[in-house]
């Protein structure tokens, strides 16, 4: 019983293909301000979207093995592509709670939708996996789901121009195939997309609820930590940010997105591989 | 491993002081349409709001003991007053997940609020317990909470005139003491209040997010069932409704609120007491 208080102060591990998962990290900081985050972004091998399942699965295992060196109390897979490929495996493999970004978004959409007609946008990989559709229909078999891959949105965010003058046009063109009049809820099925919430909301109109998986995943983490008596009791957070890419680049983007100064640590791929059992 | 598939089809127990918790039951039916509900309302001894803690605690234990005769996979305490008094005890005592209505509402409010200033309305008992304030501040110690007891709202709902012409005036008068300009989120801290969402939203204005604990509790139940591999796999639901009061009255109100024909079973207090260990 003496381990319990210590364990509450363990960090929450967050992995992502790069910087996109910072939208989830930011929401965790906002909704759970006492918690400590260890974030690991695989910027060197980003994006995961167009890669094979085998490759994404292998990369994800490497990220997890590295973070699991530290005492963690929960793990968030803050990348839709990695969630689709590895969530079931990691939930079985690890003894701590593991959360992906797909199910929280699906559950929130079910809560929001009155007419049971939901749209999902994501990367080619996520949409092809059908993961959102499966998650939605497992709970509500009669749900009507309109899925759309939007390959131009991640590059728009990564370019740093997500609030530029062109972003509305790119978003409008990407979302054009969605049957807006038939659905009342849209899931942002990619952790990059919350940065485009404004143009997306503008394009979709005010009658369509826009669900950010970042916000919902943080909320679900809060629920899980509470029910497992794992909420941090005191503010001892000392977040750490690791990247396989340039630590300077990562720190610059993270500081910008999180609105506070971030120091990032560079991790080499060989170090990561050494961590694998 | 053969018990698992059976357990997924067990019912979800819901207890309440009377009919108020039907707002939670309705949300569970909407968000988790495959699940079976066993609902028990203590209409004979309703309301719980003005009763002593000891009495509410005793009554709640009796309701739980009766429902636990059936194979349940989770228990919802769909009454704020009962949650404030018995959640900690029941979580320790029972081996199934136990959810109250206070923490889900608090977590949803934390997610919704941008300025960290939140209002809470509830019965005298709930507000006096300070349960929402504790729940909010455990996660966000800097949260500013404005609590207000609204003793006139439950009678308004129970009278059946919740969508009558006078309801706006009663709501406006009840909410008048809230500093609306200083908060961006309002928690409906009583399971009766979702029936007054329309006049409450009208009075509060469109800039204040109104959080229904009914909706959030159902969503949290969905999360917990998923993470414990307890989601129902097939539609075998055969809901049952028990009441300590008149089964005809209960059935009439429940049919009206749930929008479908409901058959209610009457339970005598002596039967309940026999169930206590």
From TrEMBL, chains A, B:
Reaction(s) catalysed (UniProt annotation): L-glutamate = D-glutamate
GO biological process terms on file: cell wall organization; peptidoglycan biosynthetic process; regulation of cell shape
Please state the Enzyme Commission number of this protein.
Answer: 5.1.1.3
Task: Kindly list the positions annotated as binding substrate.
Answer: 16-17, 48-49, 80-81, 191-192
Q: Which domain of life is it from?
A: Bacteria
Which pathway does this chain act in? Cell wall biogenesis; peptidoglycan biosynthesis
What is this enzyme's class at the first EC digit? isomerase
Keywords annotated in UniProt? Cell shape, Cell wall biogenesis/degradation, Isomerase, Peptidoglycan synthesis
Residues annotated as the enzyme's active site: 79 (proton donor/acceptor), 190 (proton donor/acceptor)
User: What molecular functions are annotated in GO for this chain?
Assistant: glutamate racemase activity
Q: Which Gene3D superfamilies match?
A: 3.40.50.1860
Function summary: Provides the (R)-glutamate required for cell wall biosynthesis.
Belongs to which family? Belongs to the aspartate/glutamate racemases family.
Q: What is this protein called?
A: Glutamate racemase
Organism annotation = Polycladospora coralii
Species lineage? Bacteria, Bacillati, Bacillota, Bacilli, Bacillales
């Amino acid at each position: 019983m003496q381990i319990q208080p210590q364990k509450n102060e363990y960090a929450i591990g967050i992995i992502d293909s790069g910087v996109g998962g910072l939208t989830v990290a930011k929401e965790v900081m906002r909704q759970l301000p006492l918690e400590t985050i260890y974030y690991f972004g695989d910027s060197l091998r980003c994006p995961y979207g167009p890669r094979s399942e085998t490759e994404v699965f292998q990369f994800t295992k490497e990220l997890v093995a590295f973070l699991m060196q530290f005492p963690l109390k929960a793990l968030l897979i803050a990348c839709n592509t990695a969630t689709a490929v590895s969530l079931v495996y990691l939930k079985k493999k690890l003894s701590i709670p593991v959360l992906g970004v797909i199910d929280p978004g699906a559950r929130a959409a079910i809560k929001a939708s009155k007419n049971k007609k939901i749209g999902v946008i994501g990367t080619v990989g996520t949409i092809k996996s059908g993961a959102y559709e499966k998650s939605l229909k497992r709970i509500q078999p009669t749900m009507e789901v309109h899925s759309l891959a939007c390959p131009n949105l991640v590059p728009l965010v990564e370019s740093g121009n997500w609030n530029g003058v062109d972003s509305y046009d790119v978003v409008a063109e990407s979302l054009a195939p969605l049957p807006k009049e038939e659905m009342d809820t849209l899931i942002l099925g990619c952790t990059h997309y919350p940065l485009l919430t404004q143009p997306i909301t503008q394009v979709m109109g005010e009658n369509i609820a826009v669900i950010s998986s970042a916000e919902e995943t943080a909320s679900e983490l809060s629920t899980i930590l509470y029910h497992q008596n794992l909420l941090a009791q005191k503010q001892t957070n000392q977040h750490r940010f690791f990247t396989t890419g340039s630590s300077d680049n990562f720190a610059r983007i993270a500081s910008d997105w999180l609105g506070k100064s971030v120091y990032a640590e560079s991790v080499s791929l060989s170090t990561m591989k050494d961590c694998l059992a």
